[in-house]
Structures are given as structure tokens and as C-alpha cells.
Amino acid sequence: xxxxxxxxxxxxxxxxxxxxxxxxxxxxxxxxxxxxxxxxxxxxxxxxxxxxxxxxxxxxxxxxxxxxxxxxxxxxxxxxxxxxxxxxxxxxxxxxxxxxxxxxxxxxxxxxxxxxxxxxxxxxxxxxxxxxxxxxxxxxxxxxxxxxxxxxxxxxxxxxxxxxxxxxxxxxxxxxxxxxxxxxxxxxxxxxxxxxxxxxxxxxxxxxxxxxxxxxxxxxxxxxxxxxxxxxxxxxxxxxxxxxx
Length: 245
What we know:
By secondary structure, the chain is α/β, with parallel strands linked by helices. It is 28% helix and 20% strand. The protein is globular and about 60 Å long. It starts with a strand and ends in a 6-residue tail after the last helix.
């Protein structure tokens, strides 16, 4: 049976919102939403937390996630890419615990409204399609569709991003191609991609989209995002909805 590893990445530093990953949202730490969702999905044989911060680690354990190591400080800087963080986690598990997964899902705490059914469906999509990876996406609103995007050229005139004149802009919404943006809520991929000899990555060549309703897709990076999240939590509570479908 294939092994699925969930890796929650949560460093201590945050420029936009101080202490973001453990800041209380609706009465519980932000990271708790992702931990609970991952565990409730029933997909993973292990869910671990990669963090450089002891307080985040302690809170993570409280909510039931494994914290097998404390991430080295040099892998928790503002400009640290995700790839070396994943490599550190996978190598540590292999060397210290002889654990090797077949698939990995990156679970960022900044996406608190992803649901267990999203994880289950994305996993089924990957297995059914034979893709290298599955990426969570949401549809871009028509008014922001890149086919309608314009730029100002060096002469101060408007042109389409394609460099065609504005008169070639698609005006009928029915004629617009569907366009999508990365929600940051779901990254699922084959573990072996991390160790590709030519180009280590977590995408591969065959990437399948998992389309999410935008109401689940909020990625919290700014204080404005945080205020939106608070309103969503309040609204959901008033409606009597509970997390964990």
C-alpha cells in the first residue's frame, strides 16, 4: 500500500503578521486548522510538523501532529525556498527512522479553510490519473482574467500583455479562456521528484489541477487576509457549520 506523508511547514518568523502560525483565529491557533484537517482526512500514514520554533512545536503536539525534529535555523529564513525544507524532512525520516513515503502533501498553515474532503479527493485524483503531482487551484474571476490584462509600454500607451493592441482584447466573457491561480492549499506529489538528478522539484511534468471553490482558498499572508478569515469563521459559526466534512 502506498505511503502518504503530510508535511506541515511552519517557521517561527513572519513579517506580515507576527507569530502568525500560532495566532488565535476563532479561539484556536491558526496551525490547528491544518493539523485537524490533515488528521481527519484519513489519507496519511504520518503527518509531521517541520518548524524551527519550540513554541510552535509544543502547540503542534497538543493538537496531535508529530514533531520528530526541530528544523535548523538556516532552513527557516525569510528567503528559504520550500525544496530544501522538504529535503531536510524526508532525509531525516529516512536516516533516523528508516521511513520513506511514496507521496508527500505540503500543508501550509496559512490555508485554514481547506477541508478533509479536499485532501481525499486530491489523493484519488493523483492515483487515478497517474500524474506526477496535483495542485490546488481556483478559477480567476472574469474581471481579472489574464486574457484581459493590459500593461503600459515604454511610451506610456496601453497594450495587452501579449503586446497586441487593446482593440484585440476579448470583450465577451463567454469567449474568455478559463484561468486559474494557485491556492497554496494543496501540493501533492511523488516523493521521488525531490531526488531527481537533473532537476529536483515537487511538480514533475504531468501536473493535474484540483479545482477548489474560492471560499476554501484563502491564503493568509497580510493583516487584511487575517480580517477576512476572522469574518469567515464568525459567519460559519453563525450558520452552525462545523469543520471536517
